[in-house]
Specification:
The structure holds 2 protein chains of 2 kinds.
Chain A (H helix, E strand, L loop, with lengths): L7 H22 L10 H5 L5 H12 L4 H9 L7 H17 L1 H20 L4 H21 L1 H10 L2 H21 L13 H9 L3 H14 L8 H16 L9 H25 L5 H15 L12
Chain B lengths: L1 H5 L1 H22 L17 H6 L3 E3 L2 E6 L2 E6 L2 E4 L5 H9 L11 H6 L1 H4 L10
Antiparallel strand pairs in B: 1-2, 2-3, 3-4
The chains are: A mainly alpha, B alpha+beta.
């Protein structure tokens, strides 16, 4: 021990420093057991405050952007310094502009569903066509956004890029909760059926009939492979956090955009189609009004975005 | 070595070491609630919180004030500062974390439906 060869005074100081360092290491190691950021446990234990509930509501009804929408929404709360805000706000607006065709398709779909509820007869062929158009437009949104994403990478510092990746993955976790199938045991308490049951005061019989119809009608809809989507998002995150980034090289994101948009929209459509014959006229009117409110606004694009 | 260990100087140094360790251990425990017991991972920012809350950048990391601690991502894990760094304390005293509200929760959509048509400006406020 080299410390023991020091004069007494220095030896005491050195030992205190060593002890402090040991203590600090002990403090740091206590956190090593902390879990990954987006585990199911964390999602399930999320505090249901207004912001969290509002975000769930948004991801239940707005399916026009997939990962591109997650990225644009992540810019809303990135906490950037003043000197970066103007550039990032322009990028945020560009991203929303590129999602505009998908937004229009999404709004048209939701309006069709609302009209069908009012009429007591949903035009399913029109709905299917609009879901397909939405998926195509959502895939194109990523390709059109490549330059904006590359510019975003240039503007942000490494810690800001890492924060953005955390937020994109957090949106993905919340999206899964918001769009959980009614038959799924995980996350389903925040899905469409649970929310409608609470909001419209559905009877257990109504809830069961909707669940049964949904489980049959969704059989033909290609599922989102959560593991595959997570892998794709990690690829985006790793690329975005690195020094060199080219959005054009992330071809899988276009596919994921289309898949998230089409699954989310198809799930919503099948849900409304299953619920419509089970609901009373008054309940249908309430749900139709709720859908029209969503079709008529796009809160994630509002100007108080990038910070 | 044995002579040094038994010398008065060595005893003083050893006593100082024990005292310093006790102090370091005591300081470490201040502000630590319970660490992360196995299987209990509730006490760190939820996904919805991360997605709707502005971080504060400190020491090259985005940090989030949550449940009375500042949390940050450390690789694939979340960690928190046991004791609040003065710079973050000052920041928190100056302004609370800004959060974004995208929609009114679904229940209030339905319950307050007639009013909702005229209160759209409240949506999406920070």
């Amino acid at each position: 021990m080299a410390i023991l060869h020091l004069p007494l005074g220095r030896r005491v100081v050195a030992l205190i420093a060593l002890a402090s360092a040991l203590g600090a290491n002990a403090c740091a190691s206590q956190h090593a057991a902390a879990p990954p950021p987006t585990s199911a446990n964390a999602a399930q234990s999320a505090a249901d405050d207004d912001e969290a509930s509002g975000l769930l509501e948004h991801h239940r009804f707005h399916h026009h952007g997939g990962v591109t929408l997650f990225i644009a929404m992540s810019l809303d709360t990135l906490g950037l310094p003043q000197n970066e805000r103007a550039a990032v706000e322009k990028i945020r607006q560009d991203l929303h502009t590129h999602m505009q065709p998908a937004l229009a398709a999404d709004q048209s779909l939701v309006a069709t569903l609302a009209d069908g509820l009012d009429a007591g007869n949903i035009d399913t062929s029109k709905v299917d066509s609009e879901v397909s158009q939405l998926a195509t437009a959502a895939a194109a949104a990523h390709d059109a956004s490549s330059d904006a994403l590359n510019e975003l990478h240039n503007v942000l510092t490494p810690p800001e890029r890492a924060a953005l990746v955390d937020k994109v993955e957090a949106h993905w976790a919340v999206w899964q909760r918001a769009n959980a199938e009614a038959s799924a045991t995980e996350h389903a308490e925040k899905g469409h059926l649970a929310t409608l049951t609470a909001n419209l005061g559905l009877t257990p019989e109504q809830t069961n009939r909707i669940r049964q119809t949904m489980s049959e009608s969704m059989k033909g809809v290609p599922r989102v492979d959560a593991q595959e989507a997570t892998t794709e998002l990690h690829a985006f995150g790793d690329a975005f956090e690195s020094d060199k980034f080219d959005a054009k090289s992330l071809s899988g994101t276009s596919k994921l955009n289309a898949h998230l948009a089409s699954w989310g929209a198809a799930h919503l459509a099948h849900f409304i189609e299953a619920a419509s014959p089970v609901l009373s006229a008054e309940q249908r009117a309430t749900l139709a009004q709720h859908l029209r409110e969503h079709a008529g606004h796009n809160p994630s694009a509002e100007a108080q975005g990038a910070t | 070595m044995s002579q040094q260990r038994n010398s008065p100087h060595a005893k003083v140094a050893f006593a100082c070491l024990l005292g310093a360790l006790a102090l370091a251990s005591s300081a470490c425990s201040v502000g630590v609630d319970a660490g992360y017991p196995a299987g209990d991972y509730d006490d760190y920012p939820s996904d919805a919180y991360i997605a709707t809350t502005e971080p504060v950048y400190f020491n090259g990391r985005a940090t989030y004030w949550y449940n009375n601690h500042w949390y940050y991502r450390d690789g694939n894990r979340w960690s928190h500062y046991d004791q609040e760094p003065p710079a973050l304390a000052s920041r928190r005293a100056a302004s609370p974390p800004a959060r974004r509200t995208y929609e009114r929760p679904a229940a209030s959509h339905v319950a307050a439906r007639p009013a909702a048509r005229t209160s759209g400006a409240a949506r999406g406020r920070r």
